[in-house]
Amino acid sequence: MKHLVALGMSGEALTAAIAEMQAAEDTRSVGAKRQQRYRDRLNAKRNEVSQNVTRDDSVTAPAPSPSPNEILNPNPTPTRESITPAREGPPNLPVGASAEQWAGFVEMRRRIRKPLTARAQQLALRKLSMLAENGQPPGAVLDQSTLNGWQDLFPLKDARNGHRNSNHQGNRSNDGFLEALREVGGR
Hints:
This protein has a domain at 84-157. Helices cover 51% and strands 0% of the residues. It is built from 8 helices and no strands. Residues 23-97, 158-187 are annotated as: Disordered.
């Protein structure tokens, strides 16, 4: 700088040159700058927490360091884990459903990460009772939903695997119109 002043550079030109050098020096991306500010804030909070010094100059054990999420968001929104799941004991099941079948359905729901809340358990039991009143065996309904990994309870599917009942024999011998035509024609 002394050299620039000695060469006769004005104060304004000197200030502009310094600002240009500082701008060229910090070529980091916007994201990198944001990340550095974040780290600086975390370190400042950690240093603030860990300076618990007593009057006799002995250092007390520092408080456990909070996680970055706790520092930035002290009041988090409830997560799926914080929602109370249904109680473990078997509820009042309709006749025809065993505690083992219900436990299997609840375990399957837990494994697909859709656990039953207390309210969902009440609704599922109500639906199971309605299906039982309509002639569906509740134990088989629970087993069907468990086996197929379904979140809900549905009436039993028949064993035809989605195929229609076909008495179709390949020829048209069962066609009433053709038979009537044959009778009229005398064949």
